[in-house]
Amino acid sequence: MEKREHKIFNHQMECMSRDERLQLQSERLVKTVRHEYDNVPMYRARMDEKGVRPEDIRSIEDLKYLPFMEKTDLRDQWPFGLLAVPKREIVRVHGSSGTTGHPIISGYTKNDLEVWSEMMARTLTAAGCGPDDIVHVSYGFGLFTGGFGAYQGADKIGAMVIPMSSGNTQRQIMMMKELGSTILCCTPSYATYLGETIREMGLDPNRDLKLKAGCFGAEPWTEEMRYHIEELLGIDACDIYGLTEICGPGVSFACLEKDGMHINEDHVIAEIINPATGEQLPYGQSGELVFTTITKEGTPMIRYRTHDICSLNPTPCACGRTTVRMTRITGRTDDMLIIRGVNVFPSQIESVLVNVDGVAPHYMLIVDRVNSSDTMEVQVEMTEEMFSDTVSHIEQVRRTITERIKSVVGISTNVKLVAPKSIPRSEGKAKRVIDNRKL
Ligand code: DLL
After folding, report:
1. What are the strands of the beta sheet with 236-243, ordered from one edge?
2. CA nearest 157: which of 131, 184, 122?
3. Rounded to whole angstroms, how far apart are CA atoms 401 and 417?
4. If you measure from the C-alpha of residue 385 to the centroid of ligand 1, how many angstroms do you get, rounded to a whole number?
5. Which of 81, 145, 248, 373 sees the fewest Cβ atoms within 10 Å?
6. Residue 334: what pLDDT?
7. What's the whole-model pTM score?
8. 400 C-alpha to center of ligand 1: Å?
9. How far is the CA of 252 from the centre of ligand 1 (A)?
10. How far is the CA of 147 from the centre of ligand 1 (A)?
11. Nearest CA, atom 28, ligand 1
12. Residue 216: per-residue pLDDT
């Protein structure tokens, strides 16, 4: 794939010197803490309990003294308890169902929407999007932030938007072809599904479509999956990250170097902590990602624990941006499976499967407990060609996968090759694990 030139939406903010940025972050942090303390009783009580006063926070160095916020706070304060402005100033809410029941919502002021649009304009620009592009949005539109976020960013750039939302895959592809979509926004699992369906419809993405890049996120995916999607669709695949509590997509984004995701640090401060002790960890060390919003008015979040696992890299990027980059998310502290005492992340299994010929990157992990011992079955789909291959070859592939998984995660698993298309496809976030031990 030919290398494309780097585009930057906001040179001043994305390329400022580290010292200038730290100064800006410190000023904005001081204001945010005061605003939160004065307007959100829950957080004021938490600071009081810890003996921290707003005037104790003078710079970003003091961040570590502040108490954390958690997803449970949003549930406990449902629906509007964390608003830091009068309700009439809120012009939109977005939400997420989460994986554990009760939904959470976040309220946006007019300015919060403006900031979020700017963050998403930077995100799309980094993937090569400009005013002449046609942005095909297959993230869902609704309470989920994916659809609206991508739309707002493209709108700010002045690109043409096709707000497809999710579902109806054949129609998506027809529109993509007829209207000449150039940038695709959806989850990586849906990008794979789209790619496969495009080929099944007898189309060649390189010949029949005009796609050049995709902004894929909302769920964990691996570098191996990125290569697979880039090949399948003939595009640059950029990772984009975000969460409803902070603003939605656009908190960070990969540029065309695809070497980590640039954090929009003039709007958020990122930290990595040890999830067990809460202690800050140095650059390069992997741990739980924590965010503090420093421009958000409606529902500011201070030291919000994301439960996502990654590390931070402060070195300037070849693209010219000086912002700290976060590595790909390797898992969540709460999606880590403990199988017979060994920590296993679904992403480790994915990285093995994507590199095996004869299987498709559609898989499901079924975890159970049999006779007091944990078991894990890895179901993975065969390709059509493999499905009609000899039994002995299929068995050989199965054994290869079993051995590779063992060498990566260190435990034996039961690998089952299943028929093509038998694992449910997702139009949004993929579900990859069924843990029967929790039932
Ligand atoms: O998923 C926002 C989003 C929409 C991001 C579109 C990117 C693209 P929530 O529904 O609140 O918001 O889910 C947030 O999804 O804490 C991560 O666990 C996961 N996640 C989001 N992006 C990525 C990514 C949106 N690029 C939760 N890689 C987060 C891995 C991701 N996990």
Report:
1. 160-162, 134-137, 183-186, 213-217, 236-243, 248-254, 261-263, 325-326, 312-313
2. 131
3. 10
4. 34
5. 373
6. 82
7. 0.92
8. 32
9. 10
10. 13
11. 220
12. 98
Kindly list the protein residues whose Cβ atom lies closer than 6 A to any atom of ligand 1.
96, 139, 145-146, 217-220, 239-244, 248-249, 306, 308, 329, 332
The pLDDT, as a whole number, for residue 2 is: 62
* Other beta carbons less than 10 A from residue 432's beta carbon: 19
State how far the Cα of 363 lies from the Cα of 355, in Å rounded to an integer. Answer: 13
181 pLDDT more than 60: yes
309 near 326, Cβ under 8 Å?
A: no
To test ligand 1's pocket by mutation, which of 96, 122, 243, 244 has the most ligand atoms within 8 angstroms of CB?
243
Other Cβ atoms less than 10 A from the Cβ of 206: the count is: 10
pLDDT tens digit sequence for 369-405: 998 889 999 999 999 999 999 999 999 999 999 999 9
CB neighbourhood size of 51 (10 A): 8
Query: CA 9 to CA 7: how far, in whole Å?
Result: 7
Q: Give the helix ranges, DSSP H, for 40-108.
A: 41-50, 71-76
Indicate which atom in ligand 1 lies nearest the CA of residue 216. Answer: 8
Of 351, 304, 307, the residue nearest 332 (C-alpha): 307
The best mutation among 124, 262, 290, 329 to test binding of ligand 1, ranked by most ligand atoms within 8 Å of the C-beta, falls on 329
Ligand 1 atom showing the smallest separation from residue 306 Cα: 16
Q: How confident is the model at residue 169 (pLDDT cuts 50, 70, 90)?
A: very high
pLDDT of residue 301: 98
Return the pLDDT at 266.
98
Task: Locate 341 and state its tokens.
Answer: 């005492």
Question: What are the C-alpha distances in Å from 21 to residues 26, 96, 209, 252, 291?
Answer: 8, 31, 41, 16, 16
Tell me the pLDDT tens digit for each residue of 280-291: 999 999 999 999
- Cα(403) to ligand 1 centroid in Å equals 31
The three-class DSSP label of residue 67 is coil
Ligand 1 centroid from CA 218, angstroms: 3
- Residue 98 binned pLDDT confidence (cut-offs 50, 70, 90): low
